[in-house]
Amino acid sequence: MSGDWSANAHSLFKEHGIKQVAYVPDAGLSGIIKASLADNDIQTVPLTTEEEGIAVAAGAWLGGQKCAVMMQSSGVGNTINMIASLTTTCAFPLFMIVTMRGDYGESNPWQMPMGRAVEPVLEAVGVRCLRADTAEDAADAIQAGLMMSFHGGEAVAVLIGQKLIGAKAFSAPAAQDAAGD
Amino acid sequence: MTMTGSLDRRAVTAKLLEDRGDLLVVTGLGSPSYDAMAAGDHDLNYYLWAAMGSAATVGFGLAMTQREKPVLVLTGDGEMLMGLGALASIGQKLPPNLTIAVLDNGHYGETGMQTSHTGRDIELARFAEAANFPWTRIVTDMDGVSDLRTRMQSQSGTSFAAIKIAAENLPRALPPRDGVHVKNRFRAALGLSTI
To answer: Does the ipTM surpass 0.90?
Structure first.
Protein backbone atom coordinates (compact mmCIF):
# COMPACT_ATOMS: atom_id res chain seq x y z
CA MET A 1 0.00 0.00 0.00
CA SER A 2 2.75 2.43 0.88
CA GLY A 3 4.59 1.28 -2.25
CA ASP A 4 2.14 3.25 -4.39
CA TRP A 5 2.64 6.56 -2.72
CA SER A 6 6.40 5.99 -2.58
CA ALA A 7 6.56 5.40 -6.33
CA ASN A 8 4.43 8.49 -6.90
CA ALA A 9 6.68 10.50 -4.64
CA HIS A 10 9.76 9.46 -6.59
CA SER A 11 8.10 10.37 -9.93
CA LEU A 12 7.14 13.75 -8.51
CA PHE A 13 10.72 14.32 -7.31
CA LYS A 14 11.90 13.69 -10.87
CA GLU A 15 9.23 15.94 -12.36
CA HIS A 16 10.17 18.79 -10.04
CA GLY A 17 13.92 18.42 -10.50
CA ILE A 18 14.79 17.26 -6.99
CA LYS A 19 18.54 16.56 -7.07
CA GLN A 20 19.23 15.72 -3.43
CA VAL A 21 17.31 13.64 -0.92
CA ALA A 22 18.49 13.91 2.68
CA TYR A 23 16.98 11.56 5.21
CA VAL A 24 16.99 9.74 8.50
CA PRO A 25 15.45 6.34 7.76
CA ASP A 26 11.96 5.32 8.78
CA ALA A 27 10.05 2.17 7.84
CA GLY A 28 7.41 4.30 6.14
CA LEU A 29 10.08 5.97 4.02
CA SER A 30 11.82 2.80 2.91
CA GLY A 31 10.21 2.80 -0.55
CA ILE A 32 11.27 6.37 -1.41
CA ILE A 33 14.72 5.84 0.08
CA LYS A 34 15.21 2.75 -2.08
CA ALA A 35 14.00 4.55 -5.21
CA SER A 36 16.28 7.52 -4.48
CA LEU A 37 19.31 5.31 -3.91
CA ALA A 38 18.67 3.54 -7.22
CA ASP A 39 18.44 6.86 -9.08
CA ASN A 40 21.78 8.14 -10.39
CA ASP A 41 20.40 11.64 -10.92
CA ILE A 42 19.59 12.04 -7.25
CA GLN A 43 22.20 12.34 -4.52
CA THR A 44 20.99 10.60 -1.41
CA VAL A 45 22.36 11.92 1.85
CA PRO A 46 21.85 9.78 4.95
CA LEU A 47 21.92 11.97 8.06
CA THR A 48 22.88 11.24 11.66
CA THR A 49 20.18 13.61 12.90
CA GLU A 50 17.30 15.38 11.19
CA GLU A 51 18.54 18.93 11.74
CA GLU A 52 21.43 18.22 9.38
CA GLY A 53 18.87 17.82 6.59
CA ILE A 54 17.55 21.34 7.10
CA ALA A 55 21.08 22.73 6.70
CA VAL A 56 21.95 20.48 3.73
CA ALA A 57 18.76 21.67 1.99
CA ALA A 58 19.72 25.30 2.64
CA GLY A 59 23.21 24.71 1.23
CA ALA A 60 21.78 22.98 -1.83
CA TRP A 61 19.43 25.92 -2.44
CA LEU A 62 22.28 28.41 -2.06
CA GLY A 63 24.08 26.55 -4.83
CA GLY A 64 21.03 26.12 -7.05
CA GLN A 65 19.63 22.66 -6.33
CA LYS A 66 16.44 21.37 -4.76
CA CYS A 67 16.74 18.98 -1.84
CA ALA A 68 13.89 17.04 -0.22
CA VAL A 69 14.27 16.21 3.48
CA MET A 70 12.64 13.08 4.92
CA MET A 71 12.26 11.86 8.47
CA GLN A 72 10.00 10.18 11.01
CA SER A 73 7.80 12.47 13.09
CA SER A 74 9.90 12.06 16.24
CA GLY A 75 12.81 13.59 14.32
CA VAL A 76 10.83 16.78 13.77
CA GLY A 77 11.68 17.67 17.34
CA ASN A 78 15.37 17.74 16.40
CA THR A 79 14.88 20.22 13.57
CA ILE A 80 13.15 23.11 15.28
CA ASN A 81 16.02 25.51 15.97
CA MET A 82 17.45 24.88 12.50
CA ILE A 83 14.13 25.58 10.82
CA ALA A 84 13.41 28.70 12.89
CA SER A 85 16.93 30.12 12.75
CA LEU A 86 17.93 29.18 9.22
CA THR A 87 14.93 28.31 7.02
CA THR A 88 12.46 30.84 8.36
CA THR A 89 14.92 33.67 9.08
CA CYS A 90 16.44 33.50 5.61
CA ALA A 91 13.23 32.47 3.80
CA PHE A 92 14.70 29.29 2.34
CA PRO A 93 12.24 27.04 0.53
CA LEU A 94 11.91 23.76 2.43
CA PHE A 95 10.17 20.55 1.41
CA MET A 96 9.88 17.78 3.97
CA ILE A 97 8.16 14.41 4.02
CA VAL A 98 7.40 13.28 7.56
CA THR A 99 6.10 9.79 8.26
CA MET A 100 4.03 9.79 11.41
CA ARG A 101 4.33 7.88 14.66
CA GLY A 102 2.17 8.51 17.70
CA ASP A 103 -0.70 8.75 15.27
CA TYR A 104 -3.69 6.67 14.11
CA GLY A 105 -3.59 3.24 15.78
CA GLU A 106 -0.30 3.76 17.66
CA SER A 107 0.22 1.36 20.57
CA ASN A 108 3.54 2.71 21.89
CA PRO A 109 2.84 5.38 24.51
CA TRP A 110 6.37 6.77 24.13
CA GLN A 111 5.49 7.96 20.63
CA MET A 112 2.31 9.80 21.56
CA PRO A 113 3.56 13.20 22.85
CA MET A 114 5.82 13.91 19.88
CA GLY A 115 3.17 12.63 17.47
CA ARG A 116 0.73 15.17 18.90
CA ALA A 117 3.33 17.94 18.86
CA VAL A 118 4.42 17.66 15.22
CA GLU A 119 1.88 20.00 13.65
CA PRO A 120 1.75 22.75 16.27
CA VAL A 121 5.53 22.79 16.64
CA LEU A 122 6.21 22.93 12.89
CA GLU A 123 3.58 25.63 12.46
CA ALA A 124 5.09 27.62 15.32
CA VAL A 125 8.38 27.91 13.42
CA GLY A 126 6.74 28.75 10.10
CA VAL A 127 6.24 25.40 8.35
CA ARG A 128 2.96 24.70 6.56
CA CYS A 129 1.74 21.14 7.21
CA LEU A 130 -0.12 19.15 4.55
CA ARG A 131 -1.68 16.03 5.99
CA ALA A 132 -2.10 12.84 3.91
CA ASP A 133 -3.99 9.73 5.04
CA THR A 134 -4.52 7.93 1.71
CA ALA A 135 -2.20 7.20 -1.22
CA GLU A 136 -4.17 9.73 -3.32
CA ASP A 137 -3.86 12.37 -0.60
CA ALA A 138 -0.13 11.71 -0.42
CA ALA A 139 0.46 12.20 -4.14
CA ASP A 140 -1.65 15.37 -4.14
CA ALA A 141 0.05 16.77 -1.06
CA ILE A 142 3.56 16.02 -2.38
CA GLN A 143 2.73 17.68 -5.70
CA ALA A 144 1.20 20.68 -3.91
CA GLY A 145 4.04 20.89 -1.40
CA LEU A 146 6.73 20.84 -4.09
CA MET A 147 4.98 23.72 -5.88
CA MET A 148 4.52 25.70 -2.67
CA SER A 149 8.10 25.28 -1.53
CA PHE A 150 10.24 25.57 -4.64
CA HIS A 151 7.99 27.96 -6.56
CA GLY A 152 6.14 29.68 -3.72
CA GLY A 153 9.19 29.94 -1.47
CA GLU A 154 7.42 28.33 1.50
CA ALA A 155 8.50 25.80 4.09
CA VAL A 156 6.19 22.80 3.74
CA ALA A 157 5.95 19.43 5.48
CA VAL A 158 3.84 16.63 4.05
CA LEU A 159 2.74 14.49 6.99
CA ILE A 160 2.07 10.89 6.01
CA GLY A 161 -0.37 9.47 8.54
CA GLN A 162 -0.37 6.02 10.08
CA LYS A 163 -3.74 5.38 8.46
CA LEU A 164 -1.74 5.13 5.23
CA ILE A 165 1.56 3.60 6.34
CA GLY A 166 0.10 1.44 9.11
CA ALA A 167 0.79 1.42 12.83
CA LYS A 168 3.79 -0.53 14.09
CA ALA A 169 2.57 -3.65 15.89
CA PHE A 170 4.09 -4.69 19.22
CA SER A 171 1.66 -7.34 20.42
CA ALA A 172 3.07 -10.27 18.43
CA PRO A 173 6.83 -10.57 17.74
CA ALA A 174 6.18 -11.82 14.21
CA ALA A 175 4.42 -8.57 13.36
CA GLN A 176 7.15 -6.25 14.64
CA ASP A 177 8.40 -5.13 11.26
CA ALA A 178 4.99 -4.69 9.71
CA ALA A 179 4.95 -0.91 9.84
CA GLY A 180 5.34 0.74 6.49
CA ASP A 181 5.18 -2.35 4.32
CA MET B 1 43.97 21.58 31.53
CA THR B 2 43.19 24.39 29.10
CA MET B 3 44.97 24.31 25.76
CA THR B 4 45.00 27.18 23.32
CA GLY B 5 46.98 28.08 20.23
CA SER B 6 48.76 31.25 19.27
CA LEU B 7 47.77 32.07 15.68
CA ASP B 8 46.01 35.35 14.90
CA ARG B 9 42.52 34.45 13.66
CA ARG B 10 42.27 37.48 11.39
CA ALA B 11 45.64 36.72 9.77
CA VAL B 12 44.61 33.07 9.30
CA THR B 13 41.31 34.08 7.70
CA ALA B 14 42.93 36.68 5.45
CA LYS B 15 45.44 34.07 4.24
CA LEU B 16 42.71 31.48 3.51
CA LEU B 17 40.65 34.04 1.57
CA GLU B 18 43.59 35.53 -0.34
CA ASP B 19 43.13 35.54 -4.14
CA ARG B 20 39.99 33.54 -3.56
CA GLY B 21 38.87 33.15 -7.16
CA ASP B 22 35.67 31.08 -7.34
CA LEU B 23 35.75 30.17 -3.65
CA LEU B 24 32.34 29.84 -1.95
CA VAL B 25 32.42 30.52 1.79
CA VAL B 26 30.06 29.56 4.62
CA THR B 27 30.90 30.99 8.04
CA GLY B 28 29.75 29.75 11.43
CA LEU B 29 28.02 32.17 13.77
CA GLY B 30 30.02 34.57 15.92
CA SER B 31 33.69 35.30 15.44
CA PRO B 32 34.28 33.32 12.20
CA SER B 33 31.57 35.45 10.54
CA TYR B 34 33.31 38.61 11.84
CA ASP B 35 36.70 37.31 10.69
CA ALA B 36 35.45 36.73 7.15
CA MET B 37 33.82 40.16 7.14
CA ALA B 38 37.05 41.75 8.39
CA ALA B 39 38.86 40.17 5.44
CA GLY B 40 36.41 41.93 3.10
CA ASP B 41 32.71 41.46 2.41
CA HIS B 42 31.99 39.30 -0.64
CA ASP B 43 28.84 38.24 -2.47
CA LEU B 44 29.98 34.62 -2.25
CA ASN B 45 30.19 34.67 1.55
CA TYR B 46 27.25 33.14 3.37
CA TYR B 47 27.42 34.39 6.95
CA LEU B 48 25.46 32.50 9.57
CA TRP B 49 24.23 34.58 12.50
CA ALA B 50 22.51 31.69 14.29
CA ALA B 51 21.65 28.01 13.61
CA MET B 52 24.64 26.84 15.65
CA GLY B 53 25.93 23.50 14.41
CA SER B 54 24.81 24.03 10.81
CA ALA B 55 27.89 25.52 9.13
CA ALA B 56 29.45 22.21 8.03
CA THR B 57 26.17 20.84 6.69
CA VAL B 58 25.26 24.04 4.83
CA GLY B 59 28.72 23.86 3.22
CA PHE B 60 28.19 20.16 2.51
CA GLY B 61 24.90 20.76 0.65
CA LEU B 62 26.56 23.60 -1.25
CA ALA B 63 29.63 21.53 -2.15
CA MET B 64 27.47 18.72 -3.53
CA THR B 65 25.65 21.29 -5.68
CA GLN B 66 28.51 23.48 -6.95
CA ARG B 67 30.94 20.69 -7.70
CA GLU B 68 33.30 22.74 -9.85
CA LYS B 69 34.01 25.35 -7.20
CA PRO B 70 35.94 25.10 -3.94
CA VAL B 71 33.76 25.48 -0.84
CA LEU B 72 35.18 26.61 2.50
CA VAL B 73 33.36 26.21 5.79
CA LEU B 74 35.02 28.58 8.25
CA THR B 75 33.76 28.00 11.75
CA GLY B 76 34.66 27.82 15.43
CA ASP B 77 35.30 24.89 17.74
CA GLY B 78 32.07 25.33 19.71
CA GLU B 79 30.01 25.53 16.53
CA MET B 80 31.68 22.41 15.08
CA LEU B 81 31.20 20.52 18.35
CA MET B 82 27.46 21.14 18.12
CA GLY B 83 27.33 19.49 14.68
CA LEU B 84 29.77 16.61 15.12
CA GLY B 85 27.41 14.13 13.46
CA ALA B 86 27.78 16.20 10.30
CA LEU B 87 31.33 14.88 9.96
CA ALA B 88 29.95 11.33 9.74
CA SER B 89 27.34 12.41 7.19
CA ILE B 90 29.96 14.21 5.10
CA GLY B 91 32.30 11.23 5.46
CA GLN B 92 29.88 9.07 3.46
CA LYS B 93 30.01 11.36 0.41
CA LEU B 94 33.33 13.23 0.73
CA PRO B 95 32.84 15.93 -1.89
CA PRO B 96 36.42 16.71 -3.01
CA ASN B 97 35.75 20.45 -3.23
CA LEU B 98 34.81 20.80 0.45
CA THR B 99 37.18 22.14 3.11
CA ILE B 100 36.26 22.62 6.74
CA ALA B 101 38.54 24.98 8.63
CA VAL B 102 37.89 25.27 12.35
CA LEU B 103 39.31 28.36 14.03
CA ASP B 104 39.97 26.53 17.26
CA ASN B 105 40.70 28.61 20.34
CA GLY B 106 39.37 26.06 22.80
CA HIS B 107 36.80 28.54 24.06
CA TYR B 108 33.27 29.84 23.56
CA GLY B 109 34.33 33.38 22.66
CA GLU B 110 30.85 34.78 22.09
CA THR B 111 29.46 33.82 25.49
CA GLY B 112 32.21 34.85 27.90
CA MET B 113 35.23 32.73 26.96
CA GLN B 114 34.20 29.55 28.73
CA THR B 115 36.53 26.63 27.98
CA SER B 116 35.20 24.33 25.26
CA HIS B 117 35.83 20.59 24.83
CA THR B 118 38.72 21.26 22.47
CA GLY B 119 40.28 23.36 25.23
CA ARG B 120 40.18 20.18 27.31
CA ASP B 121 42.17 18.16 24.81
CA ILE B 122 39.31 16.79 22.70
CA GLU B 123 40.77 17.03 19.18
CA LEU B 124 38.30 17.74 16.37
CA ALA B 125 40.73 16.64 13.64
CA ARG B 126 40.56 13.11 15.03
CA PHE B 127 36.80 13.04 14.53
CA ALA B 128 37.28 14.06 10.90
CA GLU B 129 39.92 11.36 10.52
CA ALA B 130 37.50 8.80 11.97
CA ALA B 131 34.91 10.00 9.44
CA ASN B 132 37.31 9.04 6.60
CA PHE B 133 38.28 12.56 5.55
CA PRO B 134 41.30 11.90 3.29
CA TRP B 135 43.22 14.95 4.62
CA THR B 136 43.11 16.19 8.20
CA ARG B 137 45.56 18.52 9.90
CA ILE B 138 46.18 20.24 13.17
CA VAL B 139 47.56 23.60 12.07
CA THR B 140 49.77 25.53 14.47
CA ASP B 141 51.70 27.89 12.16
CA MET B 142 51.10 30.08 9.12
CA ASP B 143 52.92 27.66 6.82
CA GLY B 144 50.25 25.16 7.71
CA VAL B 145 47.59 27.73 6.82
CA SER B 146 49.25 28.24 3.42
CA ASP B 147 49.26 24.48 2.84
CA LEU B 148 45.58 24.36 3.73
CA ARG B 149 44.79 27.19 1.31
CA THR B 150 46.66 25.40 -1.51
CA ARG B 151 44.86 22.17 -0.74
CA MET B 152 41.47 23.92 -0.62
CA GLN B 153 41.94 25.71 -3.93
CA SER B 154 43.13 22.50 -5.65
CA GLN B 155 39.86 20.72 -4.71
CA SER B 156 41.76 17.48 -4.44
CA GLY B 157 39.82 15.85 -1.63
CA THR B 158 37.66 16.68 1.37
CA SER B 159 39.83 18.44 3.91
CA PHE B 160 39.57 19.28 7.58
CA ALA B 161 41.85 21.52 9.60
CA ALA B 162 41.77 22.45 13.26
CA ILE B 163 43.67 25.74 13.30
CA LYS B 164 44.98 26.57 16.73
CA ILE B 165 44.35 30.27 17.22
CA ALA B 166 44.78 32.54 20.24
CA ALA B 167 41.78 32.92 22.55
CA GLU B 168 40.96 36.60 22.24
CA ASN B 169 37.93 38.70 21.43
CA LEU B 170 38.82 41.11 18.65
CA PRO B 171 36.73 44.11 17.61
CA ARG B 172 33.69 42.81 15.75
CA ALA B 173 33.37 43.37 12.01
CA LEU B 174 29.66 42.85 11.54
CA PRO B 175 28.48 41.26 8.29
CA PRO B 176 25.05 42.14 6.90
CA ARG B 177 22.48 40.57 9.22
CA ASP B 178 19.58 40.33 6.78
CA GLY B 179 19.70 36.61 5.99
CA VAL B 180 17.27 36.89 3.09
CA HIS B 181 19.47 39.53 1.47
CA VAL B 182 22.68 37.54 1.98
CA LYS B 183 21.06 34.39 0.60
CA ASN B 184 19.69 36.15 -2.48
CA ARG B 185 22.94 38.03 -3.03
CA PHE B 186 24.86 34.74 -2.91
CA ARG B 187 22.50 33.10 -5.41
CA ALA B 188 22.58 36.14 -7.70
CA ALA B 189 26.38 35.96 -7.78
CA LEU B 190 26.00 32.39 -9.07
CA GLY B 191 23.49 33.54 -11.69
CA LEU B 192 20.48 32.13 -9.82
CA SER B 193 17.11 33.81 -9.32
CA THR B 194 15.67 34.51 -5.86
CA ILE B 195 13.11 31.71 -6.12
So the answer is: yes
Does residue A82 sit at the B interface (CB-CB below 8 Å)? yes
Q: B44 in contact with A at a CB cutoff of 8 Å?
A: no
pLDDT in tens, B32-64: 999 999 999 999 999 999 999 999 999 999 999
Q: In whole angstroms, give the CA distance from residue B67 to residue B64.
A: 6
Tell whether A146 lies on the interface with B, counting CB pairs under 8 A.
Answer: no
Closest partner residue to A59 (CB to CB) among B52, B57, B88 is B57
Buried b (16+ CB within 10 A) or exposed e, A55-94: bbbbbbbbbebbbbbbbbbbbbebbbbbbbbbbbbbbbbb
CATH code of the domain in which A18 resides: 3.40.50.970
In A, minimum Cα distance to B70 occurs at: A63
Domains of chain B: 9-189 (3.40.50.970)
| Alpha carbon B79 to chain centroid, angstroms | 10
> Which residues are CB-neighbours of A157 under 8 A, at least 6 positions away?
A76, A96, A97, A98, A122, A127, A128, A129, A130, A145
Give the pLDDT of residue A171: 72
Band of pLDDT at residue B73, cut at 50, 70 and 90: very high
Please give the tally of structural domains in chain A.
Answer: 1
